[in-house]
Amino acid sequence: MKIVPNILSVFRICLVPVFVIVYFIDNNDIKYYAILVFIIAGVSDFLDGYIARRFEAQSKIGKVLDPLGDKLMTFTVLICITITNFSNYIFLGTVIIFFIKEILMGIGGLVIHKKAHVEIPPANIIGKASTFVFFVVCAALMLFRSYLSNLFIALMLSVAMCLSLIALFVYLSSYIKIMKSRPKKINSGEVECNHQSVQDVNETRQ
Q1: Fewer CB within 10 Å, N or C, the chain?
Q2: Residue-wise over 63-93: b if at least 16 C-beta within 10 A, else e?
Q3: Which residues contact 24 (CB under 8 A, 6 or more apart)?
Q4: Three-state SS sequence of 34-91
């Protein structure tokens, strides 16, 4: 049971190219097959998280695969929607902001893992809310794009972007706190000095 969450995460990553293929081969305004793939990916995301918590099946590789699958799928969906709606600059802006956010979070996570020797902080409630809102917005755009006004689309994407940016600032603040609280290294000179002081004290006692 412990490997099931990881299998589901890998399965979700494998769905990314499948989504791209079915999105562009479907000439309908409503991308039925792409939506189906997207929903399957969302269900697999819920299941791997539930199973991991329910059966205590969390693993280090799972902590990487799970968010990686989410981010790859969300980013791919946004790019596909942007390509078919390139004249609407709000889509392009959303993709750029999403990309910058994920790059900064990835760099921050790697830095604290290497410098502070701690695990990358898990997703917080704002990050999870941002992911959920992006999921709903992407699904709505694929289902009802022809029925939605540009103003309403801009409003939906703005809400998703704002949550994403808030999540970024929360993550960065937690990264900074971790870096400030990490134990400072003692250089070799200080170690030798301390060692000599201990020897002097021992000699004095003798």
Answers
A1: C
A2: bebbbebbbbbbbbbbbbbbeebeebebbbe
A3: 80
A4: HHHHHHHHHHHHHHHHHHHHHCCCCCHHHHHHHHHHHHHHHHHHHHHHHHHCCCCHHH
Residue linked to tokens 């399957």: 40
| Residue 98, domain member (yes or no) | yes
188 found inside a domain: no
Number of domains in the chain: 1
Q: 52 with 62: CB under 8 angstroms?
A: yes
Measure Cα distances from 187 to 68, 191, 193, 199 in Å: 37, 6, 10, 19
Owning domain of residue 151: 4-181
Contact 22, 76 (CB under 8 A): no
State the CATH number of the domain containing residue 25: 1.20.120.1760
Rounded to an integer, what distance in angstroms lies between the CA atom of residue 75 and that of residue 82? 10
On whether residue 170 sits in a domain, the answer given is yes
In a domain, 31, yes or no: yes
pTM score of the predicted model: 0.80
Give the pLDDT confidence of 119-156 residue by residue, as tens digits.
776 777 888 888 889 999 999 999 888 888 888 988 99
Tokens describing residue 72? 């790859």
